[in-house]
Structure formats: structure tokens, C-alpha cells
Amino acid sequence: MSETSLNDKSEEQALFSRRVLLLAILVLLLFGVLVGRIVQLQIVDHDKYRTRSEQNRIQVQPLVPRRGLIYDRNGVLLADNRPIHNLAVVRELAGDLELTLAELGQKIELSEDDLESFAKRLDRRRRPYEAVMLKSHLTEEERAILAVHRHHFAGVEIISESVRHYPFAEMFAHSVGSVRRVNEDDIKSLDPVQYSGTEFIGKLGVEKFYERSLHGQVGYQQVEVDAYGRIRNELDVDHPMAGVGLRLQIDSDLQIAADAALGDRRGAIVAIEPRTGGILAMVSKPAYDPNGFVTGISTADYQALLGGRTRPMFNRAINGQYAPGSTFKMAVGLTALSSGVVTWPETIYDRGFFRLPGQRRMYRDWSWKQGNSGGQGVVNLNRAIYRSSNVFFYTMASRLKIDQLTDFGAQLGFGARTALDVADASAGLLPGPEWKRRVKKEIWYPGDTINLGIGQGDLLSTPLQLATYVSIIANRGRFVPPRMFLDSEAELAEDLAIPEPVTVSGPTPEDWEKMVDAMEDVVHRGNLGYGQAGTAWPYIGQDIAYRMAGKSGTAQVVGIKQGQEYKEAELDEYNRKHAWFVAFAPADDPMIAIAVIVENGGGGSGVASPVAREVADAWVLPRLTVANAGRVE
Amino acid sequence: MNIDFVRTLGRYGSGQPVRMRFQVLPDPVLVFLLILLMGCGLAILYSALHSSLDRLEGQAIKLAGGFAVMLVLANIHPREYLRFTPFVYVGGVFLLVLVEVFGDVAKGGQRWLQLGSSIRFQPSEILKLAVPLTVAWYLHDRTLPPRWRDVLIALGIIALPAGLIIIQPDLGTGLLVLAAGGGVVFLAGLPWRWLITAGTLVAAAAPILWTSLRGYQQQRILTLFDPESDPLGAGWNIIQSTTAIGSGGLRGKGLFEGTQSRLDFLPEAQTDFILAVIGEELGFVGIATFLVIYLLIVARCLHIAVQTKRTFDRLVAGSAGITLSVYVFVNVGMVCGLLPVVGVPLPLVSYGGTSALTLLATFGIVLSIYKHRNY
């Protein structure tokens, strides 16, 4: 340096100054670029970014309405709401998810199912920082454990929600029904606004039919949230409107009695108050615990409920479609009376079988024996009912046109859904020529009418339909459509028009009365020697404290060939006949009409009639006044 | 020696070696601008820290410490820096190697060196200061414009620590070191054809450079061009910071009123992304104010560089201006979505002590150069 000339020095300084100047220009240019960009952000696109920042911070969150409660007619709670505590993970805060899950698994039990459904839920679309459920229904103990280790688990939260609870568990599974967690398919059909925060919807029974009322009106809160989705400020609230509470016609005491009467057998019971059409009890067994669908059920358990021969998920009371068998005979008798093809005094001779003129095919009575030695002898309509003579009704059917039978059957609710508020009830089947041509592509044979005469052939009916039918008889022809609903604490969202009762046309009041008498004979006619007692008398008629009208029936499960005897013991349990019994009581002032089916219970009155008697006892006995009780023999 | 000659001549013509008094304000302009910057910075930091006085106090103490260091350094004669520079450089590189071997891993990079139980520090910060000084030291007694051999050696001086820092990996600091050292070479009069050749070489090497980047570094660059492609991951920072700045508009939402930062949408709001808080709460006016202060400081550094007579001093003062400009450009460019997210703080405003200390030390040396410009 010391040797550098002054000239060099100044030249070097000039070079340096030029470089500094260049540099200054470069810096200004670069800062100009920055300013340009900032002007673009803050001035040109300001509106866009302001909107974005508002969307970031302001969230509209749905406030889920409290689901309406369901009571029985006496105010007993059948469905209420309960808080549960779920374990949830916020993915964005959890860090190493595998590690977190592994460590959580050491503290509380996490099943394969939990982890699997968690992985599925994690894959779904969701808001950033939305908590994803890992395990539902934490126990007190698990919550305590998690509370202790809370600081160890980032992004792990306990979220409380109010869920449906069925205090009677299985008892009302097939009548009150149940809610389920909303699934992807539901989302497509549900009102996206009303259901924006709803986790459960009614899927079965009353819960389904009255979903709109029970659900209530969703509310909203506008909140300021931070980046982690935590609410910092409430800006505006529109409170939700709780769902409407419902009181059902169901009587829980009767339901429990009916359930006990059926015991462990497969089958169904429907009990109706004839005067109002109110459904007092609806039992289908086996049943399932609907709480499982609220709290979550493992895939294996769900498969077990769906599959298997017992099918607990199947609602036999409204979806079980069986041949009504001999219980249909009152309908045939009343058709014959109103069509003028028979009178009450007229008799026929029952040899145990019936043949259409010019045909070889033999239509047998239940009393038929090898060598044609059975039969009920001289039979009029009254005796044909209490002895359940097939031959008498084959004869009636042969005198009737099929349309006369189906028209009258339709008036009694066969082949149609007549219940006002029973979700997903089956319509059964009232066959006729038109139906047979359309569905089976065959013509209607005279033999089809003969089969219909004893409630067999293609005729199908649900227990609910048979209970409706027998309550029409109890009402002497007055048809009140059955319903679940009694009253509600507020106006319903559903349009439930309760129609005026209709009178079934055809039979005279005397015909109805005599038919009721015949049905009373089924239960009460006894102590008269062989072949003289009502079919149900040996089982239920000997010690009954009130007048009951009833009729048994049998629904065949497998076809029995011509000339073959039905040997119950040889058949597999699931191929045995179903046993029906329909009844109402007291006969003169009916308080209850009942239909009972015991699946594969075997033929006749032996199995089903005691069940109906137990149900009727539970309802009628406490309601008989002491004075009335004295009048009964 | 020239220096001795100038010194003995002295302002007072006493013939005695000049002993200069300790000066608190060697250059009132620069000191005022720095205090203004740090004051405004602390105000916005107070908001970004969600009004946490404790943490603000911590930062204020760090800045005050850095300011004291600056004043001490301002009163040391530049020849001392010239003397010690090579040792600092060698020591810094040695520490960088140590970091490679023993460094603590923080946020995916081995950048920290643990001293004792509580003090951690980044040796790369030393190099931010040492590299331009060393290049200036090397070039100060060469003929300028430099010959190609000198340029190569100077580039070697830069490349060694820059390379070590980039493989830590800390791309941001590495680039800053490269820019600071390169600025000195440029100021020293690097011939244009060299610049053009180098530019062409870099362009040609870009694909190779790309493949040598780490996955997350590549991601940051890709995200820059399409932040919406990964809105919750790598794109989150850019989306939230541009939203914050854009929503501020001309005048901003008001101090302490920025929803993006207050509700934690803005990541790193107290550190690398504090400019977004300025933009959101103080608007264009706020950002422009900060940019003007920075420009004035840069201008002051360049002014001092031009005024001073010793080559070493000029180069060092000039490189301080360059370093600050690059700092600001990279940070602002990154926060408003022009540049990849490389982890460069906004100088003297972002929360954190180390980078502020290095910068204040640099300005201390600049002040020293100004104070001793005639001696």
C-alpha cells in the first residue's frame, strides 16, 4: 500500500465510487420491486385479501338442537339424551401421530376397530384443526387417566356431546326405533343447513317417522376463531330450537308384559286400543340394544345382528309378512254373509276335505287323517269359526267371486299400509287375478280362491295388519287407523292427519255381533266333550276372568305334498309352522286387540294363544272394576 | 506506513499520535437511524408478542446489549479489525466444523453450538461479520481492480464458510454470507466480464444446484410459485403472510388490531414474518416507513464508504450496506411471496438476539470507520 501512487489511489477511489453508485441504483431497483409487490398486495388486491382474512377468522358454527324426548303414555321416558365423552385428535397439533397413538394405547385401551375407523375419518375432508374422533364413550376412569397425562399428549382432546340414550335398551328397539350416526349417504339427502352439526338421525321406528319434529331447528353462532380453531370471541348467536317431545300411545308396562309373554321365542306381538287405534305395545323378538348404534358397534357385532337365522335387526311386527292362515276366516265369513252366499243357520257337512267340482285336488282340513277319516261333521258359520273348519271356508270361497273377497279384505286393511305413523311398515299382500297376472304371469285359478278361503296361498300379512284387522272386528266394523302418536309438547313438523273412523261396508251390525260371539266361543266354549270345545279353550279358556274373543291361525313355512301328513317332530325347527293368535278383550267393550305370532311355534292355538292371554290379562285385569269382576262367571 | 503518517499528522497538527476520546455518537445520523429502527421494531414486536411485556423486555435488553457492543466497537480503530480479522475468520470456520461434528439439531438444521448449560449460539453468525471483513482484508493491499488470481482466492475465502453453512443446512444464512462477501469483491472492482461469466456459470449450474437442495428447500421454492398447491403445509406461511399484508391495505388495521397475527394464523409472526404484522397493522404506510429507514441506513453506510480513504475501510463499510440491503430484500421478498422461505429475519426488528448482535457489531465497525475516517 505504501508504494501505491497518488494517481492509482484516486483512480481506485473513482472506481470504488462508481461501484457504490451502481450498487445504490441496484438497491433502489430491488426495493422498487418490493414496493411494487406490496402495492399490489395492499392497494390493488386489498379487497381480496381483506375478504380472505375475514374468512380466516370468522366462522359460522352450527348449534345442534337438543333432540326431542320420547315418552310412553304414562310419561315414562323411552328415549332421552345423555352426555358422552369422546377422545379426539387434532392432526395438525398432534405431531408424530403414530407415536401419539402408540402412547395413548398404553394409557387406555384402543381397539383395532377404533384405530381403523379413526384412520378412515382422518382421510375424509375436514376443516384444518378439526378434531377427529378416536374413541367414543370414555369411561370415568379413562377420562381421569387422560386428564393426568394431558400435557403429555399434544393435540389430544376430550370432546363431550349429547347423544341419544334408550333406558330400556332392547325393550323398545322395534317400536321406538333408534338413531344412527349420520353417514355419507345420509348427507346427500339431508337438508345441509338443518343438519350441519347433527351427528345422529332417526333411522328406525318413531325416531325415523318423527325425525323432523324430534330434531328441532338448528341454531348458529358466529365466532372469531384462531388458527387452531379455538373460539376466541362470540360475535353473534341464533339459538337452536330443541326438538319436540313426543308422548306415544305405547304403555311401557304392557310392553314389558308382552315381551315377557313371548319370552325367548322368535315372534312378534302388536296390541292396539280399538277405540283410538293407539298402538299399546309392539314387540319383535329377538331384538337388539339400540344404544350400540349410538355408542358405536364393532363390525363383527353388527354382522351378527344382521346375519344368522334369528335376525335380531328384523322387525317382525311390521316387516314380518306371513300367511294369516285361519285368522283370515272371519273375513271370509263376513264376505260370504254380506254377499248373501251363506246365512248364520246354514250348515254344511265337513268330511275333512274339499274338492272343487271336476277336480282331483284335495283341499284338506287340519283335522284330516289318512283314509279321509277326519272332519268336523255338521258345521255352521259359528261352529266353523270356533272349530276352525277349513272345509266350511273352502265351500264359502268356492261360492264367492275372488273380487268380493279381495274387496272386503282391502276394507280390513289387507295388502295396504294403514298405520298412520309407523315408518317402513310392510304392506303384506292381498293377491287377486290382476296381481297374479302382473307378478306371476299366470291366470287366477279357482283353486287360488279356495286357498284364500283359509288365509293361505299368496296372502301375506304382518302382525301389525292382523292387529288392525282384529281391532276392526272388535269395533264391529269401525276402522280406526293405528298410530303410535298420543300427543306432543309442541306442534309437530309432520303432517299427521288423523282421519275420521270409517265403517266397513257389507256386514250388518248383527253379523258383526255374531262373529264376535263365534270368536268368544273359540276361547270360552268348553266342557262339552270331544270336538265341541273352542280351539283355544283348552289352553286359555278355562280360568279366564273376562270375556275374550280370539282366533288361532297357522302359517305354513314349507309346502306339504298332497296326501302327506304333517309330522312336526321330523321337521327342522326353522321349517315348522308359525303359530298365530288374534284376540280382543273384553268382548263387549274392547280395551285391547292383539295379534301374536310365534315363529316356527307349530300349528294351532297351543303356543300363541297363551301369549295373547297374558298380554290381555296385563291390560284388562287392572282395568276391570270390582263390580264388573263380580259379574263375570 | 501511510496510516502512521496520517495519524501523526493529526487534526490538531500536534505531531503526537492522536488519542481519540470515547464517543457515544461517532455518527449521529447512523446512530439515530438505528435507534429509530429499533424503536419502531420494538413497538411492532410488542404487538406481535401478543403484548407480552416479559418477552419484549428480553428483546429490549438484547438490543441494548447489542447497542453497547456497537458503541464499544465504534471506538476501536479500524486497524485493529484489519489485524484481527484473519483470526476471527479462522476461528469462525473452525467453529463451523465443530458444529458439523457436535452441533445441536434445532428445526432440522445443525446450527447451534451449546456452550455450557444455557448458552447456545450459531457460529454462522460470526461468519456473516467475518467473511466480508476477511475479503476486504485480503484485497486491501492488492492492486485494484483485482487480478484474476486474487479474485479466485477471495471467492475461496467466501465459499469455504458459505458452503459449510449451506450444508448445515441453513440456506438463508449461507446466501447472506455469499452476498456479503460477493459484495466486497464487487466493490473492489471486479471486472464486468467476470461478473457476466459468473452469472452464466450460475445459470448453467442451476439444475445441479437444484438437485443438491434438500427436499424441504426444494418444496419451499416450488410452493413459492403455487402456494395453493399445499395450503396447509408449505404454502400455509406464504398464504397467511400475503393475506395479512394485503388485508392491511393503505393504513392497516391499527396497532394490536391485526387478526392474522393476533389469532395465530400468521406463523413465525415475531421472528421471520414480522413484516406481515407491520403490513397488517400499519398498512402500506408502515411498511414504507420501515423500508425508508432501511434505505437511509444503507445510504448512510455507502456514504461513509465513499467518504473514507482506506481500502479496507471502504470495502467494509460498503459491504455493511450491501449486507443490510440483501437482508431486507430477502426477508421482505420472502414474506410477501416473491422469494422462497429461507429463514432470514427482518434486521433489528425480528425477535432474537444473535442476528441483531451481529448486525449491531457490523454497524459498530462502520461507526469506527466513520469516526477514524481522517486518521
Strand order of the largest sheet of chain B: 1-2-3
Oligomer: heterodimer
Mean pLDDT of chain B: 85
> Any low-confidence stretches of chain B, pLDDT <50, length ≥5?
1-15
Helix content of chain A: 25-40%
The CATH topology of the largest domain in chain A: Beta-lactamase
Helix and strand succession of chain B? HHHHEEEHHHHHHHHHH
Describe this structure in words.
The complex is a heterodimer of chains A (633) and B (375). Chain A is 38% helix and 18% strand. Chain A has 24 helices and 22 strands. In chain A, a hairpin with an 8-residue loop joins strand 14 and strand 15. The termini of chain A are far apart. The N terminus of chain A is likely disordered. The N terminus of chain B is likely disordered. In chain B, helix 4 packs across helix 5 and helix 6 packs antiparallel against helix 7. Chain B has 14 helices and three strands.
